[in-house]
């Protein structure tokens, strides 16, 4: 079963705009991770945020975590056509690397 | 490139058959996890192997089984295939010494007819 919900399920924006994806989860966590998947291929790790962190940056990515609301957001700034992919959040309850994934957000960047 | 390789990339089986999927983990990684991803869904955890022992299992029946070898490569075996087993099977390697991220292979796409 899936841990939580991702919102929106699909997002289409123009190149250069910012994209924001949200993730909610149900149980307490050790960390939350975001992954990217191109066209049903393997997942690529983007960023990990621990339960005691509130915000993390990596290049054009910004992730926030609100453990009181059991939610996280991923912001991609200055989007590019190459950012077109599905994005998944995944929670790790114990730090044992057994991840529970959301259903994903399909992001389309229009040139 | 994550250094995790999976084979075969695609295969077609019929109901009732058995399948074996293979995974070579990234150098230095001692943990392998398997995930099933149905079309349009997020991956679901099947099980994890650490030092050749099963180290946790998701909500999958016993006909899903696995092995990890001394070189940390791994196999996923599925017996008595059902139509709902059609999915992308993803292998991920990691090390307990790293930050917690998983390194995924490109997957094996199984179609059951």
SSE map:
The complex is a heterodimer of chains A (111) and B (113).
Chain A: E1 5-7, E2 10-14, E3 19-24, E4 31-37, E5 43-50, E6 55-58, E7 61-66, E8 71-76, E9 85-92, E10 99-101, E11 105-110
Parallel strand pairs in A: 2-11
Antiparallel strand pairs in A: 1-3, 3-8, 4-5, 4-9, 6-7, 7-8, 9-10, 9-11
Chain B: E1 5-7, E2 10-13, E3 19-24, E4 31-37, E5 44-50, E6 53-57, E7 64-68, E8 74-78, E9 87-94, E10 103-104, E11 108-112
Describe this structure in words.
The complex is a heterodimer of chains A (111) and B (113). In chain A, 0% of the residues lie in helices and 56% in strands. With 111 residues, chain A is mainly beta. Chain A is globular, with a radius of gyration of 13 Å. The termini of chain B are far apart. Chain B has 113 residues and is mainly beta. Chain B has no helices and 11 strands. In chain B, strands 2, 4, 5, 6, 9, 10 and 11 form a 7-stranded mixed sheet that branches. In chain B, strands 1-3-8-7 form a 4-stranded antiparallel sheet, with no helix packed on it. Chains A and B meet through β4, β5, β9 and β10 of A and β4, β5, β9 and β10 of B.
Notable traits:
heterodimer, A: mainly beta, 6-stranded mixed β-sheet, 5-stranded antiparallel β-sheet, B: 113 residues, mainly beta, 7-stranded mixed β-sheet, 0% helix
Overall form of chain B:
globular
SSE arrangement of chain A, N to C = EEEEEEEEEEE
Low-confidence stretches of chain A: none
Characterize the quaternary organization of these chains.
heterodimer
Tally of DSSP β-strands of chain B = 11
Give the distance, in angstroms, between the N- and C-terminal Cα atoms of chain A: 36 Å
According to DSSP, the number of beta strands of chain A is 11
Beta-strand content of chain B:
over 45%
- Through-space gap between termini of chain B: 32 Å
Radius of gyration of chain A from the CA trace?
Answer: 13 Å
Major sheet of chain B:
7 strands, mixed
